[in-house]
Every structure is written in C-alpha cells, then in structure tokens.
Amino acid sequence: MREREGDGVKACHWGTRNAFCSGGLVFYGAGSNRGLCAGDMDVIIDCGADIEGCEEFSGIGNITSRDYAQQIIRIEWPDGGIPALAEENWRTLIGDLRGLRLRIGRDALHVMVCCVGGHGRTGTALAILAALTGVAPEDPVTFIRTNYCPRAVETKSQCRYVKTIAGLNSEDDLPPPEFDKTCESSLR
Q: Which CATH architecture does the domain made up of 17-166 adopt?
C-alpha cells in the first residue's frame, strides 16, 4: 500500500521533483510511495519502483497526445545497493536520451528517475547523470542532495558507486544522510 504525505512520510520531497537540466534533458526524481506522477514524462528510468504497478501510472501507457510512445527503461537495482552497470552503460543511456530528443524534435526531453522511496536508487542515478552530463562533475552527491532531496544517495556503497562511475578519486567519504522516523518509508 502506498503511503500518503502526512501518514508517516516526511515531505522532504513529495511528488515528482525537478532535479536538474542539461542540454535539453530535464531530469526529475520521484518515489512510488511519495506521490509519483509520470504522465508528463517522455522517459521513465525505473530503478525498482515497479512503475507499471503504480496507481498514478495505471492506464497512462502510451500517451495518445504524443506521436511517440512513452519510454520506460528498467534497471535491476536492489534496494540499498548498486546496479551492475558500468560507466559505459550510463554514458550510453545519456547518448540514447539525447538521440531520442533529437529524433522526436523536442526542445526538451522530460526524464523521470524513480524507485520506491525516491532516495537511494533515485538519488544515486540522478547523481551519476548529473556528473556524466557535466552539471555536477566534481561533487554530484552533494549537488543532488542540495537540488533534489537532502536524503538522496542513502548508503556508503551508493556514494562510492557514484564516485567510481563519475571517475572521482577523492579520498573523502560522504556520509549517508541521516533519516528520522518521519522520513523513513515503512518499506525500508
């Protein structure tokens, strides 16, 4: 059962939130238990939200007002962990998104990244995308925590993964965000 804002879910980010823009790509983050709204998105990167099972997504499918289908990209990604994707996979994804924007002739392509809570997997993916698109090449985790949600990128392994994919060699280890009982999902 999806939680609603106020029912034990702190509104640190409720709904689908704009995270950043880069070269005609507009990236958003969301969680399936945090009021996710996918209807206006061109591409959905599903990092474990089971987007097609979300009530907000039911019946949307291929939006009829468009001359192309809404794209859904699924990434197998364990909660609290990291996916089996290398830097090359992420760079290919960005290239594919840029290519899609050009093919459909849009000034902007709206891309939503989502998981269940919208923190760990979503934040990690957004941090990587920010780093590899050049928006936040030096400190993508802090950038996403500042511009999307302070609870983003939950674990030390996710912080290390962002650094690895972004090619950062700094020794400092960003701590995971601190959660309080009002913010943690019952799914964690």
A: Alpha-Beta Complex (3.90)
